[in-house]
Amino acid sequence: MPCPRNLADRYDCFPETGGLPDLDWLREGIDSGQIGAFHEMMFNYDGTPPDSPKMAPFWELAASSGIPVGVHTWSGPPPGRSIRANPNCCPDYDGEMGNPAKLRTILDRHPDLKIWLQHVGSDGNRNPELWDETLSLLADYPNVYVEMSITNSLLPFDLYESGLTRLIDAGFEDRIMLGTDNVSLDTILDRLNRIESLSDEQRSAILYDNAARFLNLDDKTRRQHHE
Using an 8 Å Cβ cutoff, are 6 and 89 in contact? Predict the structure, then answer.
């Protein structure tokens, strides 16, 4: 959410509420344990600014409920360039809405809100300012984490390796989480294992430890996962 126009054939787009789910329905899902996160927040495909007034109740609900939010950041891919291109997709697309800097107002308003940036590095080197904004956001807001799905699978390996190394060299190895999107996990694990500069501790952090901390998994749950 917000659901872009012309994607009703792929997603439940909540046409009766203008592309956004009903707040009472969301609260019920959170209270019952059926909803544990909001994502993907597709601001660039819908053309909606993250700090639009219509989004305010959803940010407030996520913050008050302790629900993490995954935001489709960086610029794309733009309509028509995805691997499953929909020629009718997203007439209101605005790549600038995926700029991580757009989230600053939200994070200032809700300092305890947890956000993870999705698809970090997916523009490769075309928009270096997005790297600057991503690293700046991570530096200023400790509750912001990242994942590199699409970057870690479909982009050239050297761009993935350089992007991951850039995050680590900037001091954020404890905030990188595994992301897969719609790509085979085997492909992503193979590419991760090809990066020889990573230590075992860094691999473990990316594959599990960082996400366990981000999601506040208790010790019992962590033991069960490892078993």
Answer: yes
Token output for 224: 């069960």
Domain membership of residue 2 (yes or no) is: no
Per-residue model confidence (pLDDT) at position 18: 79
Here the CATH number for the domain that contains residue 158 is: 3.20.20.140
d(C-alpha 120, C-alpha 176), whole Å: 10
User: 3-state class of 40 per DSSP?
Assistant: strand
Q: Is residue 117 part of a domain?
A: yes
Q: Are 104 and 111 in contact (CB under 8 A)?
A: no
The residue with tokens 């897969």 is 180
Model pLDDT for residues 172-224, shown as the tens digit of each residue: 999 999 999 889 999 999 999 999 999 999 999 999 999 999 999 999 999 99
**Cβ atoms of 198 and 204 closer than 8 Å:** no
What pLDDT, on a 0 to 100 scale, did the predictor assign at position 83? 45
Distance separating alpha carbons of residues 130 and 224, to the nearest angstrom? 38
User: Among residues 30, 2, 33, which one has the least CA distance to residue 15?
Assistant: 2
